[in-house]
């Protein structure tokens, strides 16, 4: 009942309330990033959702588009702006994804939506992470987020899919609040952003 019906209703109600309450912060961050990113405050990217259906995720843009002499984008660490570092550290870059939740592409809680290029790299068990809608936060995020290995993240994602419940989602919400307040596990050790998944060993 919760997985197939109530979860979507609760997602919509909480995302709507959350977006209204956070709208002042949304507007402030929007203005700051417009100034820092040449009028481009948002970042859109295709991601696979439930049943691997592709949708466009929306986040605040925390990196500029500076390119090197060869015309290619500079490494992430070199493009991450000071404002972007703060927005990431406080997880404010996730606020626009409430619009994805309202639209129905995402849930508040679920495995994080990753890059489409990862799809062929998953094993059969890891593919189960796409049996539910992706989330703004999830079981992997409150158990290490970007500070744990890809293998461990996928284990947490699949465990969540197999044990999804209202009580578990409430637990994840409270753990997420604690993580955000403490600014824990934002990045992989010695990395400005998350390292790419290159497949299972």
From TrEMBL:
GO molecular function, one term: phosphotransferase activity, for other substituted phosphate groups
InterPro entries, sorted: Bact_transf
Residue ranges crossing the lipid bilayer per the database entry: 12-35
Residue ranges of domain Bacterial sugar transferase in the record: 7-181
UniProt entry keywords in alphabetical sequence: Membrane, Transferase, Transmembrane, Transmembrane helix
Superkingdom: Bacteria
Signal peptide bounds: none
UniProt name for this protein: Putative UDP-galactose phosphate transferase
């Amino acid at each position: 009942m919760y997985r197939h019906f109530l979860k979507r209703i609760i997602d919509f109600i909480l995302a709507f309330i959350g977006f209204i309450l956070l709208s002042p912060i949304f507007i402030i961050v929007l203005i700051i990033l417009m100034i820092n990113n040449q009028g481009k405050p948002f970042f859109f990217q295709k991601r696979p959702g439930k049943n691997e259906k592709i949708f466009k995720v929306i986040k605040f843009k925390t990196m500029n588009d500076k390119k090197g002499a060869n015309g290619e984008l500079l490494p992430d660490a070199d493009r991450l702006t000071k404002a972007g570092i703060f927005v990431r550290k406080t997880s404010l870059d996730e606020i626009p994804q409430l619009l994805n939740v309202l639209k129905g592409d995402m849930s508040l809680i679920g495995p994080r939506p990753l890059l489409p290029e990862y799809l062929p790299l998953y094993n059969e068990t890891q593919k189960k992470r796409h049996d539910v809608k992706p989330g703004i936060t999830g079981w992997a995020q409150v158990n290490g987020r970007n500070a744990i290995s890809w293998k461990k993240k996928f284990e947490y994602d699949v465990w969540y899919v197999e044990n999804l419940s209202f009580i578990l989602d409430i637990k994840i919400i409270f753990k997420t609040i604690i993580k955000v307040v403490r600014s824990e596990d934002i990045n992989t050790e010695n990395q400005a952003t998350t390292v790419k998944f290159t497949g299972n060993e």
